[in-house]
């Protein structure tokens, strides 16, 4: 395989290595994101053109209605969509790097199941609705994450392998509890719970946007910094330690960050299939990166979600197509297409 | 493998199976149960219940557990991934989609018909994954796992789209099937399941030696005389038959296929003959204990076996992951 020459930026004692192919990939993804976002703002029952969007941005909206639709309805939905995708992509990249396994996404390790358990208990047992479901899901995911981490800890160390195994065991129990709640619950409540489980960005407002984006903004920087030592740890703890990586500390904080991101995304939208698993794989394989490209995974996650949302809105079906399902279909079909055409390089897993 | 342990496991499974015969939603005295087995009277309602409900159910639990255990064992070697669950290969998802289509089309679930629909769906799903992921020149385990995950997700999302859009009673039927249950399965489900499991299980054990060779890596395996292509194909067929049958008969029971080979590998080490045999035993034990426990906890409502096996197996699995130094592949 020929590698494109890398670009090195130097400034005093600092240097930044940019892989050219990955850079192009990121630029393209970002472009797609901008185009997609604009389209998402224009689509809807009330048609809004690019000119009107610009007018609203510059502060002289053509009418109250346009401003209301744009600022209070479409923008929060867009931000939740992009934010959830970005959070899931980032979280997936970190989990896959830590577990050194392409299956090591937050869905497989049980955090999504934990979020669902929180939400289901709230919906089915307490008959709760609305904004509180978000909090319940968040609590479920965080409790699960901390529980898995503590269970996997032994002698002050958490081996990646034990973490994944523990996560699978805990996830299986939580899935069973979810199934139990769905089966034994009242049929009407179970149906609304099933709808939550399908994942959706309908009717999201600024109350959903703020926690998600504040979390993203606060965590992206530290996560980017932590990705380098984490990449070294892919060689194994024994090799990374002598190279100056505080193995246990990096793993703990990166895990916590990834967990919070996954929890924020899941609580805002419900479980979203596949983005956390597919986005890092796609970014890594299309960018032919030797280690997990975090920004690529983030952008890919956002693009997948946005694409799915656009598709649900323009699709000519007379069906309820929750976004969490469309991401599954798009991501899955795309990955199958890549696999079928042998378009994926046999990169490292 | 310690011989004592093997016999202990067999004894445990047999005892659980016998105990299961005496438990059910309707209280039948142990004496009546015994007479039903030894001196069957077709006019006696209690006898009919034992003969046509409890007996096939016990055998089906053993059969489903063994099938999942063996399928998981083969699968983890084939993908070289200790996290691989046979359900990940598009098999469970294929069966599930086929059955939800059946329920949505006919409005009700008929266990006998759904068995064949499930087997059909599992076969199509599994075959697609193996064609996508493995039947090229290179047998890249990661490709296989990714193909399986991708197809499973697509099929599962289609399933959910159908349940979200269908009428309430379709979802009601489906949610009971989707948790994995042995309730109401009679001889008509048991016979095909037993035959398919027997064929698949024997084939899996016959594959033990080539799998040993393949587990060393493809190049190594080839130089030891295992034709990777042929082994792959045979192993894929075995997984589809075993996991497909289990899913079609009892619904998607996750976790057993992942946990049983894991535990077995810890005891036996990497040799596949012992591994697969013990894995089948552990699978059978887990499913029948789960079924028994589900009936003991709440005889009237019964907690389904898919739920119980994860509730029982999960904590054991976590405890073992903590305590033991689990071997990778």
TrEMBL record, chain A:
Pfam family, one: FecCD
Record family assignment: Belongs to the binding-protein-dependent transport system permease family. FecCD subfamily.
Highest taxon, organism lineage: Bacteria
Keyword Transport (UniProt): yes
Protein name, as recorded: Iron complex transport system permease protein
One GO process term, biological-process aspect: siderophore-iron import into cell
Annotated compartments: Cell membrane
One MF annotation (Gene Ontology) recorded for this entry: transmembrane transporter activity
Membrane topology, as annotated: Multi-pass membrane protein
Membrane-spanning intervals of the chain: 22-44, 78-96, 108-127, 133-151, 163-183, 210-227, 253-279, 323-340
Gene3D superfamilies: ABC transporter involved in vitamin B12 uptake, BtuC
Swiss-Prot/TrEMBL keywords: Cell membrane, Membrane, Transmembrane, Transmembrane helix, Transport
GO cellular component: plasma membrane
Organism of this sequence: Yoonia maritima
Automatic annotation (TrEMBL), chain B:
Transmembrane segments: 57-75, 87-107, 113-132, 144-162, 189-211, 231-254, 305-324
GO molecular function: transmembrane transporter activity
One record GO biological process: siderophore-iron import into cell
Topology with respect to the bilayer: Multi-pass membrane protein
GO terms under cellular component: plasma membrane
Domain of life: Bacteria
Cited Gene3D superfamilies: ABC transporter involved in vitamin B12 uptake, BtuC
Intracellular or extracellular location(s): Cell membrane
Keywords carried by this UniProt record: Cell membrane, Membrane, Transmembrane, Transmembrane helix, Transport
Pfam family, one: FecCD
PANTHER family to which the protein is assigned, alphabetical: FE(3+) DICITRATE TRANSPORT SYSTEM PERMEASE PROTEIN FECC-RELATED (PTHR30472:SF1), FERRIC ENTEROBACTIN TRANSPORT SYSTEM PERMEASE PROTEIN (PTHR30472)
Protein known as: Iron complex transport system permease protein
């Amino acid at each position: 395989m020929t590698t494109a020459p890398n670009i090195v930026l130097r400034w005093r004692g600092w240097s930044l290595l940019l892989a050219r192919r990955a850079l192009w990939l990121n630029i393209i993804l970002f472009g797609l994101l901008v185009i997609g976002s604009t389209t998402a703002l224009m689509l809807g029952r009330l048609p809004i053109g690019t000119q009107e969007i610009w007018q609203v941005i510059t502060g002289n909206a053509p009418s109250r209605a346009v401003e209301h639709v744009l600022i209070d309805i479409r923008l929060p939905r867009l931000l939740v969509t992009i934010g959830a995708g970005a959070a899931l992509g980032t979280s997936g990249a970190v989990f896959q790097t830590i577990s050194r396994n392409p299956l090591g996404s937050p869905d497989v390790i049980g955090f999504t199941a934990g979020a669902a358990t929180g939400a289901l208990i709230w919906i089915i047992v307490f008959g709760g609705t609305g904004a509180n479901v978000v909090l319940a899901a968040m609590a479920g995911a965080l409790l699960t994450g901390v529980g898995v981490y503590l269970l996997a800890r032994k002698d002050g160390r958490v081996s990646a392998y034990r973490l994944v195994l523990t996560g699978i065991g805990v996830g299986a129990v939580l899935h069973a509890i979810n199934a139990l709640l769905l089966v034994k619950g009242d049929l009407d409540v179970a149906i609304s719970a099933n709808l939550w489980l399908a994942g959706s960005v309908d009717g999201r407002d600024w109350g959903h946007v703020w926690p998600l984006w504040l979390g993203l903004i606060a965590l992206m920087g530290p996560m980017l910094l932590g990705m380098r030592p984490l990449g070294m740890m892919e060689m194994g703890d024994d090799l990374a330690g002598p190279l100056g990586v505080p193995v246990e500390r990096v793993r703990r904080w990166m895990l916590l960050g990834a967990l919070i991101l996954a929890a924020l995304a899941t609580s805002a939208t419900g479980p979203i299939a596949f983005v956390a698993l597919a986005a890092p794989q796609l970014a890594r394989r299309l960018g032919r990166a030797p280690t997990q490209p975090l920004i690529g995974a983030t952008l890919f996650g956002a693009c997948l979600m946005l694409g799915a949302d656009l598709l649900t809105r323009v699709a000519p079906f007379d069906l309820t197509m929750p976004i969490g399902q469309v991401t599954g279909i798009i991501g899955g079909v795309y990955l199958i297409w890549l696999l079928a055409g042998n378009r994926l390089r046999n990169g490292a897993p | 493998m310690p011989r004592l342990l093997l016999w202990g496991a067999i004894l445990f499974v047999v005892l659980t199976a016998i105990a299961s015969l005496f438990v059910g939603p309707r209280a039948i005295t142990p004496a009546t149960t015994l007479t039903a087995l030894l001196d069957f009277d077709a006019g006696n309602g209690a006898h009919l219940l034992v003969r046509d409900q409890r007996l096939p159910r016990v055998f089906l639990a053993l059969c489903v557990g063994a099938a999942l255990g063996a399928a998981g064992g083969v699968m983890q070697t084939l993908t070289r991934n200790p996290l691989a669950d046979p359900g990940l290969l598009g098999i469970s998802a294929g069966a599930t989609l086929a059955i939800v289509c059946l329920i949505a089309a006919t409005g009700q679930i008929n266990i006998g018909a759904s068995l064949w629909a499930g087997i059909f769906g599992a076969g199509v799903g599994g075959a697609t994954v193996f064609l996508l992921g493995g039947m090229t020149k290179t047998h890249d385990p990661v490709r296989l796992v990714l193909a399986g995950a991708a197809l499973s997700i697509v099929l599962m999302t289609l399933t959910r789209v159908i349940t979200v859009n269908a009428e309430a009673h379709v979802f009601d039927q489906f949610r009971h099937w989707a948790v994995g249950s042995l309730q109401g399965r009679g001889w008509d489900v048991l016979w095909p399941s037993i035959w398919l499991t027997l064929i698949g299980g024997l084939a899996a054990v016959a594959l033990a030696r080539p799998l040993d060779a393949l587990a060393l890596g493809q190049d190594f395996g080839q130089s030891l005389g295992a034709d990777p292509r042929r082994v792959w194909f045979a192993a894929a067929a075995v997984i589809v038959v075993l996991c497909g049958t289990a899913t079609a008969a009892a619904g998607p029971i996750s976790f057993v296929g992942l946990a049983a080979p894991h535990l077995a590998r810890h005891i036996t080490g990497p040799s596949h003959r012992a591994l697969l045999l013990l894995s089948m035993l552990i699978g059978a034990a887990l499913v029948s204990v789960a079924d028994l426990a589900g009936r003991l906890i709440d005889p009237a409502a019964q907690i389904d076996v898919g739920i119980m096996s994860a509730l029982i197996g999960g904590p054991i699995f976590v405890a073992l992951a903590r305590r033991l130094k689990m071997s990778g592949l």
